[in-house]
Amino acid sequence: MVFLHIYYFRFFDKNVLYGRFCVTFVAKYYYKMHQEEVTLQSLTDNDCIKVSYSDNDIVVVDDVQQFAEFGSAHISLNGIAVCTSGRVTAMMNSNKVELNKNQVAVVPKNVIITDLMLSPDFKLKAMFFSDRMLQSFLHEKISIWNETMYIHRNNILTLDDDAILFYDHFYSMLKLVMECGPNHIYYSNEVIQSLLRAAMLALCGAMKASINKNVSDPSVKMRSSPSVYFQRFLNLLHSGDVRNRSVQYYAKQLCITPKYLTIICKKHSGKTPLEWITGQSIENIRYYLRDTDLSIKQICDVLNFASPSFFGKYVRQHLGVTPGKLRSGEGSTNP
Hints:
Layout: H1 2-12, H2 16-33, E1 35-38, H3 40-45, E2 49-54, E3 58-64, E4 72-75, E5 78-85, E6 87-92, E7 95-100, E8 103-107, E9 111-118, E10 123-129, H4 131-138, H5 142-151, E11 156-158, H6 161-180, H7 188-216, H8 225-238, H9 247-254, H10 258-269, H11 273-291, H12 296-302, H13 308-319, H14 323-328
Parallel strand pairs: 1-4
Antiparallel strand pairs: 2-3, 3-10, 4-9, 5-8, 5-10, 6-7, 6-9, 8-11
Helix pairs in contact: 1-2, 5-7, 5-8, 6-7, 8-10, 9-10
């Protein structure tokens, strides 16, 4: 990056502030041009990454033989990484994080990783998954994930000896199923997903314990008003089926304006309130179509759609298939 120094010294004598601005601008441009996109496809296509399982929504990484050098990486998936040896430091959305042995990094979707520094003995095991699978795993516990990620911003969890023993045994069982595959274990994919869901629920327990500790710890500062509003918005969203799909409704419940609710949501999560509402609505629709025997008319009543035709239009707009096709198994991945 010699050209950064050239820009800096060219403008330094004339104007120090301008010189620093140019360095920052060029550095950001460099990172943007050299930003790696981490997706399900890029993970499975990378020869340096040992993938033990993958489908349309999940990639399980057993080991990484070589970490590629990059200016920055955009993680377009949700991820959980367990450090089994060594340590790593990085900037995650401009916040410094450090991961050591027997710690778990929990990474929400759309995080930017920069300044990655690894110890020579660093090793990890990881799982990356889509929003659809996150909702499927944690349907009734998703609020714990969201509160941990977007309110408390606690991305690093430390495992005690009992938890380490639990996950060691758990991973041994998971690896056995993955190695046997469908030729020896019927419904192996479903078994793998059930095991991963169990692990996610156990991790949610650790998140909940961390939240309770932060709340009761007098050294932890009270959250600012915007954070409280955002948490209340998530609580409303996850308190039941999404029957009201307008930003105005939730803003009114919080006694704030829709514009302010949008600012709060973007600040804490990078998503608009409409994106949160739509995502929750879609997962409820998937659940009722795939996991219940309710008729389309009954689902419309439960989720407050005006008519089956409007419901069908909403499903086609967001999932690309009709409700009938979704119920029969099509459109099971993210749109």
